[in-house]
Amino acid sequence: MTDTITIIKPDDWHLHLRDGDVLETVLPFTISQFARAIVMPNLLPPVVSSRDAAAYRERILRAIPPGKKFSPLMTAYLTDNTDPDDLFQGWKQKIISAVKMYPANATTNSAYGVTDWRRTVKVLALMEKEQIPLLIHGEVTNPDIDIFDRERVFIDTILVAIINDFPGLKVVLEHVTTSEGVDFVAESSAKVAATITPHHLVINRNDIFRGGIRPHLYCLPIAKREVHRLALRAAAVSGNPSFFLGTDSAPHAVASKETACGCAGIFNAPGALEIYTQVFEEENALHRLEAFASCNGPNFYNLPVNKEKIVIKKTQSKSPGPVVVGSSGEEILPFLSGETLVWKVISGGGL
């Protein structure tokens, strides 16, 4: 039985770092496991221009602890009024690595998002020409659509139309959560990919209500039925290069989660790689972990894989308790806080 594995150091292709004291608090957890990360732009105000992205990148770089290495890959927040020329300059100058499409009001800080994707056709045409990846939060926001059906309806009514009109566009269906999403990506061209989070591999919608409402398991897209969780696990371990790691780690203060209208998001950065490793072991697919975690993402983004290695050992440890933010004293609760993890990163990372 394998109890120690060595893989190329992974990257996180979907990450929320926030800003200010929260950024400085949560960033070291990502650095301990990942060499690079695609950083989401949904700040307040959002990162909508190349100048915004450059400034945010500098704040992230300043927050990296001494002696640590990490490369933030910046994204621009797509709006109805995004300037194609600014986007092109940001891409050409290697400030922007991708563009994020949030349907307006679909998730945290998405009020500035796209109201109708057809308003963005000039930007999408440029992105198709230049091969700038479009990262999509794939949910409709129509209140008449059941929350558990929003991804499926988005694929049928919006994503299919975008890809039909722009067949050469590189598209990532972020944090895919349904069997329909998995099937769509698997049956599409190599231009279409998907990220899979650790929490959607572990929980289903029953867990959110097990023993009462569990607000720290609430995220968007919301966890779905067990059949969808199993489809995600099958996709992750399949060896299909169109699926790769993206944690969607999204920190919120405990006070913002445990309230009458709690925020959506799961902070999984402290144990993300250990959770992925456990899932791959359970699926008898440890031999495919490196491709999913370390190779498929860089290949899709046309970037080299990392040279560093990371060692993961089968040894029990506890997922950390609440993380205190700076001088504010606010706490952020990690995913599976206090629960036993069966794998642990022992070298190539560490805080």
Description:
This protein is α/β, with parallel strands linked by helices. It is built from twelve helices and 13 strands. The strands form three sheets. Strands 2-3-4-5-6-7-8-9 form an eight-stranded parallel sheet. It has a three-stranded antiparallel sheet with strand order 1-10-13, covered by helices on one side. Helix 6 (about 180-185) packs parallel to helix 9 (about 225-235). The longest helix is centred in the middle third of the chain and has 16 residues, at about 150-165. The mean pLDDT is about 95.
Principal-axis shape equals globular
End-to-end Cα distance, whole Å, is 28 Å
> What class do helices, strands and sheet pairing give?
alpha/beta
The number of helical elements comes to: 12
How do the helices and strands follow one another from N- to C-terminus?
EEHEHEHEHEHEHEHHHEHHHEEEE
Largest sheet: 8 strands, parallel
> Unreliable stretches, pLDDT < 50, 5 or more residues?
none
Compute the CA-based radius of gyration: 19 Å
What is the strand arrangement across the widest sheet?
2-3-4-5-6-7-8-9
Share of residues in helices: 25-40%
- What is the number of strand segments? 13
Q: What is the percentage of strand-forming residues?
A: 15-25%
Mean pLDDT: 96
Short recap of the structure:
By secondary structure, the protein is α/β, with parallel strands linked by helices. 33% of the residues lie in helices and 18% in strands.
